[in-house]
Amino acid sequence: MSNAPAIPALKSVALLCFSSLFLACAKAPPPEDAPAEARAVEWTKHGGGDAEQRFSPLAQISPDNISQLGLAWAFDLGVSRGIEATPLVVDGVIYVTATWNKVSALDAKTGALRWQYDPKVDRSKAADLCCDAVNRGVAYADGKIITGTIDGRLLALDAKTGVKLWDTITVDQSQPYTITGAPRIVRDKVFIGNGGAEYGVRGYVSAYDINTGALLWRFYTVPGNPADGAESPAMAKAAETWKGEWWKFGGGGTVWDSMAYDPELDLLYIGVGNGSPWNQSIRSPGGGDNLYLSSIVALRPDTGEYVWHYQTTPGETWDYTATQHMILADVNIDGKARKVIMQAPKNGFFYVIDRVSGELLSAKNYVPINWATHVDLETGRPVEIPEARWGGKAPYMQLPGPFGGHNWHPMSFSPDSGLVYIPAMETPYVYAQDENFSFNSKGWNTGADSAMGSLPTDIAQFKAVKAAVKGRLLAWDPVKQQPAWQVEHNSPWNGGVLSTAGGLVFQGNADAKLVAYRADNGERLWDFFAQTGIVAPPISYELDGEQYIAVASGWGGTFALVYGGLFPAESDAGVGRLMVFKLGGKASLPAISDKVTARPAPPESTADAKTIARGKVLYDSNCVVCHGDHVISSGLIPDLRWSPLLATDAAIQAVVIDGLLSSRGMPSFNGVLTKSDAQALRSYIIHAAHEGLEAKLDIGK
C-alpha cells in the first residue's frame, strides 16, 4: 500500500451537501433574503450524515478566534448518570435524550424548552443492562422523532409537539433485551438493534415502517436452533461456523450501536457485537468462526438481504465487538480512489475495507495489543497469539481488555485533514475461565471469572496496573495506517469527537472539560469546565449566521461505574446538562454545591473469612458493574459501604431479593441470588467499609 494522500477536501458547503453520504449539514445555504428560520446549517442525523463522519462544514469558529468561545446557554436534564446522547438540530429545534430515555426538545438558539416526553421505562430493566442506563439519541425524518427505550420499545413522536404517534415493542420483553443505541432512518424505514449479549440473547437488527411502526423485516446476526430451520441463506451459511448447542446460550451478536448508509450503493452497514457467553469454549466448543459475531455486515435496506460481511475477530472470545463507530469516506489508496468503510473496533486494529465488496484493504493496530501479531492481508484474518485464547487455559492478561482499544464513543473523520480522530484507550484485563459456570437466563453469562477483573489491592501491583491504564485522543492517518499525533488524557473513558472545517477537533473528557484542539497537530487551544465528565460527542450547527457547538454532559457508562472510584478523575456526580457554545457567549453554569453527605458508621464486621470471600465472589459476579470494584463507588449511584440497609440481613434481603427499590433502578436478584447469598454479600460489603482501601492505595483527586 502506498502513502498516497487522501482526496483533497471539498471546501464548498454546497458540494458537501450535494450528497447525503457526506451530509453534516441539513440543507444547502438558502438565499440571504430567506426567512431567519431557514438560514441554517443543522445536524439532522446521528453521525452528522449517512456516512457518519461527524465532520461539520462550518468554519466560523477557528483557531484564530477560539478564545472567544463561551457558553451561550445550558439546560438541566434533571439527571446526571451516563449521558451519551448525540443531539439533533432540525428546523431550529435541538432534540436530546437523557437517562431512562426522556426526550427534550429545546429552542436551539435560546435553550427554551419546547416539550418533553417521558416513555416511563420500567426501571427494574436495569437488571438487564451491562453498561449503565444510557441512551445515545434519537433519529428524525418526516416530522417525526424516533427513539428506542431501554425496555425494548421503538417510539415515534411528533417533532413539533412531542405527542406520541406510535409505540412498537421490538423484543421479547420476557428476555433480557435492551436498547441503548440511536435508531437510523433510510427513506421510509427505521432501523434498530438491541443489547443483552452478556445475559444470553440472540442478536438481530429490524426495520420498521416510519409511519405505522409495523415490522418490515428482521435480520438475525447469529443462527438459532438448527431444528427450527434457517431464516435465510445467510443464517444457513453462519450455522456451518458454529459448534455444539450454542442456541441454548443465545449466541449474542447484538447490534447495539453503530450503523452507516451509502445511498449510491444503497447499502446499510451494521456492526455486530460479541458472543454469548464471551467464552467460546463454552459457547461453541470445538471452535469455528461463529458468524456473524464481531463483523461488519452489508444489507439491502429495503429487504434486509445479506450482501457481504467482514469479520474482524473470528471465533470471538474477548468481548471484542465490532459495534464501534463506522465511517464511510472516499480515499486515495495506491493511486486509486476507493469507496471505503473505516472502523476501529475493540480488538485494537484499525480497518479500511472496500465498502462495495467487503474486501479488506488494510489493518494496523492503533493501540498496543498482545492477542494477535497482525492481520494477514491475504486471508483477512488476525494471526493470533495462542496463549490469548484463554478458554480452558491459564489466565491471560491482555491488551485490549473488554473495554477495548476504542469503545462506543464516536470517532470523527475530517476530509480536510484526511485524519480519523479516535477516543482511544489502553485497559488491560485478565481473562480466565469460570470453572463453575452454569447458564442463568436471569443473570450475567460471560463464562469468565469475574474476580480476575478485580484490581489488585497490593500497593505496588495496584500502582503498576493503574500506570498501564491510559486514555488518549489519537489522530490516525487511515491511508498510511499510522498516527499523525496524539494527546494523552489523565484517564480512559473520554468523550466522542467532532471535527470541523474551521480546523478544530472538539472532545469532552473524564476530567469534566470540553476541549478544542488544532486538527493538524493536536495543540490544545481552549477548554471549558463542565463540572461533570463528558462522554457524549459534540455537534455543530448554524442559526442566523452564528455557529454553535453543543454537547451533553453527564459522567457515566460501564468504565465509570466499575472503576470510576479507583480511577478518580476531576468528574463528580453532578447535574447532567446540554451545553451550547458560541463566539461571545457569556452564560455560566450554577456554582457547584459544597454539600457533604454524612457517612453513617457501618455495622461491626463479624463474619468469618470464608463468608467474606464468598461474598466477594458473589459481588464480583452480580454487583460490580454498577457499584464499583472493591465496593468503591464512582459516586454516580449510592456507595453501598455507607448504606443504612447494611444494618440487618432482613434489610439487605428486602432490596436484593424482594426488589424493594426496583422502581428506582435497583433490580431484584430473586432467582439469581438466595437469602444466604444476600447475607454473604452484606458481610463482604461491611468488610470493605472497614478495610479503608482508598487510604491504603492513596486514591484521591
TrEMBL record:
Any GO CC annotation of this UniProt entry: membrane
Amino acids binding pyrroloquinoline quinone: E84, R136, T180, G196, A197, T254, K346, N407, W408
Active site (record annotation): D319
Pfam families associated with the record: Cytochrome_CBB3 (PF13442), PQQ (PF01011)
All residue ranges annotated as the Cytochrome c domain in the record: 610-689
Cysteine-cysteine disulfides: C130-C131
Family of this protein: Belongs to the bacterial PQQ dehydrogenase family.
Protein name (record): Alcohol dehydrogenase
Organism: Zhongshania aliphaticivorans
